[in-house]
What does this fold into?
Amino acid sequence: MTNALKTSGYWTEFPVTYRAEQVTKIMRWVTAGESGVVIGGSGTGKSNLTGFLSSRPDAVAPHVTDKPDKYCFLHLDINSLPALTVPFFYRGLGQALQEAAEALGPELYQAMQQLTDRHLNWDDAFEVLIFLQKAHRLVINRTNKKVVWLLDRFDEACRQLDAQPLNSLRSLRDQFKGQLCYVVFTRHPLARLRDLSEIDEFHEIVAANTCWVGPMNERDARWIVRQMAARLNATFTEAEMVQLIKVTGGLPAFMKLACLALAEGVLDKVDSVQTWAEQLLTRLEFQRNCQEIWNDLLPEEQNVLSALSSGANETQVNPNILTYLEQNGLSVRNVSEEKVRVFSPIFENFILQQRDVAPGILEYDPETGVVRIGGVPLEIELTPYEHRLLAYFVRHLAEICHKDDLMQAVWPDEQGIGSDERLAQLVKRLREKIEPNPRTPTYIQTVRGRGYRFVQPGD
It folds into this structure.
């Protein structure tokens, strides 16, 4: 099995059985020449799964039905691109193909170099697509391998890229049916990211297959505890391991932080799961992780989780929403208690706090660029445009800020400032950084047909 990424020391630490259930499902699509979507929320370790697939052929081999050396995994992390534009997206694909050719041998690499020595105009979509067709043909025909694209952190690409580049992936796949497929990794189902009618060609080839990645099962959770103990030069007893898994619900991000807290003596080994959950939730890193998970949910999903946290049973909540929460691992069925509950006591405590905590006052210092909510500084970095927009809002507290005035404030030196959509996208990005829940904004309110209004809680 050939991979674009070489096995590194980091990936060799992972056991062959790591995420075996998900690997089995994904490889079932791949061996059939099909594409699909892998969905997992914040902190679930999707990128670890991507890296594991692309750099551990020995672990993938047991899950394929044909010869294990027939697969060439190509990994593109969308977040690694300098900017999310069509030319950079295509260049990312091209670079991964070049790295694969180099790993597959000097003759293929030389042939690939001849293709790329033509000084491609990456802004010319037609020229680039011809190059990608030829590059795939080189890899597939000369090696007789199936090419499997692992497109990691694909959410923003789905949201922002023009529809045509995404749909062109379908056209590329059609030229190599059975020999080329895509495994797309996202935090959300594609339908939440974009109107699927815009990308119907691409969506059609990935829609049939979905794999959910949530908190780890006990086997993998125990491995994380052992791995963290070794890294921290600590020893965890069996009882401590069980309690770590229970309090974190097996969420990788929670588990690593909880192991660190236990090793540092933050947690008392004799305390209960509930006490651990309360203590861990006082730490900023846990608050931040919980808030990120919470913000990714729709209001109706938040309401169901709130109901479960308050003791509601499954007959009292929307069954379709409950199914979605179970799929992504945020709610789990306790067989012994015959009850559905929130996956982790830490997150359950966080949910209970949301009912009692009103949004704090937002403060912005234009000199330092620091944003505080309730006196607590946010760990965010605003772009220059976002700084100008927030500064204008703060200066015009509770006023209706008309779109033309906002665009003039943000882009004062530009002729033909731009469209309402450009402003809307900037507001959206600012909301994602400062709002407790960007889908139901607290501070930046939309005034339909006119612009926006910046308000403080209680105004």
Remarks:
- Residues 218-354 form one domain.
- DSSP finds 22 helices and 14 strands in the chain.
- The first strand starts at residue 2 and ends at 3.
